[in-house]
TrEMBL record:
<comment type="similarity">
    <text>Belongs to the PIGX family.</text>
</comment>
<keyword id="KW-0472">Membrane</keyword>
<dbReference type="GO" id="GO:0006506">
    <property type="term" value="P:GPI anchor biosynthetic process"/>
</dbReference>
<dbReference type="Pfam" id="PF08320">
    <property type="entry name" value="PIG-X"/>
</dbReference>
<dbReference type="InterPro" id="IPR013233">
    <property type="entry name" value="PIG-X/PBN1"/>
</dbReference>
<keyword id="KW-0812">Transmembrane</keyword>
<keyword id="KW-1133">Transmembrane helix</keyword>
<feature type="transmembrane region" description="Helical">
    <location>
        <begin position="195"/>
        <end position="218"/>
    </location>
</feature>
<comment type="function">
    <text>Stabilizing subunit of the glycosylphosphatidylinositol-mannosyltransferase I complex which catalyzes the transfer of the first mannose, via an alpha-1,4 bond from a dolichol-phosphate-mannose (Dol-P-Man) to the glucosaminyl acyl phosphatidylinositol (GlcN-(acyl)PI) intermediate to generate alpha-D-Man-(1-&gt;4)-alpha-D-GlcN-(1-&gt;6)-(1-radyl,2-acyl-sn-glycero-3-phospho)-2-acyl-inositol and participates in the sixth step of the glycosylphosphatidylinositol-anchor biosynthesis. Probably acts by stabilizing the mannosyltransferase PIGM.</text>
</comment>
<protein>
    <recommendedName>
        <fullName>Phosphatidylinositol-glycan biosynthesis class X protein</fullName>
    </recommendedName>
</protein>
<dbReference type="GO" id="GO:0005789">
    <property type="term" value="C:endoplasmic reticulum membrane"/>
</dbReference>
<keyword id="KW-0256">Endoplasmic reticulum</keyword>
<keyword id="KW-0337">GPI-anchor biosynthesis</keyword>
<dbReference type="InterPro" id="IPR040039">
    <property type="entry name" value="PIGX"/>
</dbReference>
<keyword id="KW-0325">Glycoprotein</keyword>
<comment type="pathway">
    <text>Glycolipid biosynthesis; glycosylphosphatidylinositol-anchor biosynthesis.</text>
</comment>
Amino acid sequence: CVVLGAWAACQDATVSQELLKEGFHRDLLVKVKLGVAEEDAAGCTVAARTRLPPGIYVDPYELASLQQHNLTKAVLIPDVVDVEAPEYLATDLLVLLYLEPDPRCSRCFRAALPVHGRYHRPAAESEEALVVLKSPEVLVCCCDSRLRTECWKPAEAEAPCSGKTDGPCQWYSVTHKPTYEELILQVPVGLRQHSSLVCVLTLLATVLCSSLILAAVCKYGHFS
């Protein structure tokens, strides 16, 4: 691969990210506009590499289903994710999200990725925990182009340029201007002073449901 080269005065790309929907289950929308000529952007693969903090994760099973239907393409590092772990027992997750060309703009690329908030420890006062997403790194690979590389630096990304290549190729990191340096996800959390009430109600609900199940078994069950 030879990747995207300089154009004009090595103009920076612009990148923005946005969280769609509400609650714990969101879509992370990433948009990139390359600072190159329109003909130079043709045939290039653009990806956003972002590190998700422990408070948010990608479900690998959901991602696999979406990729089977060609709805998104991404690489998770590590590829094994504990989707049940709370925030305080989870670790960071590195995501390489492949962007699709925007038909309305020849230099623009975009992609959406389903993400999910994790449960946090109960808080003393605030009913929301803040999860901060830093601006992603923009990576470019133009395997079919013969362009200069003065503006870009090689990136350490072990991933193919696209789904059509078997092995990893050389990615380059593109300097960019983020619309916002960081994105903040607000995750609802419980209050510590409600812990006793929650425990009592949970115990009562468990006893009630267990009693109903036991009564149904005794009434309708067949015992030899």
